[in-house]
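Meet our chain:
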Amino acid sequence: MLRKGFFCLLLLVSLIGEAKPPQLSPRDVKSKVDEILKAHVTYKALTPELMERVLTNFLEELDPTKTYFLQSDI
C-alpha cells in the first residue's frame, strides 16, 4: 500500500512539474480579441475605455480579494 501511494505521489509531482502555460503570441491574442469584438453587439473596436475595463475585469477575476498584487505591481 505504501509503495502504491509513493508511486502516485511521484507521478503527481512529475506531472505538475511538467505543466506549462499555453504558448500565446501577441498575434494570437490580437486575432482572438478581434474575433470576439466582431461578434459583440456593442463594441466593434478597441478603445482606451474598453481596454481599461477589460484590464480591470481581468485583475478582479485574477485577484478578487486584492491580496496577490501590490499597488506598485498594478
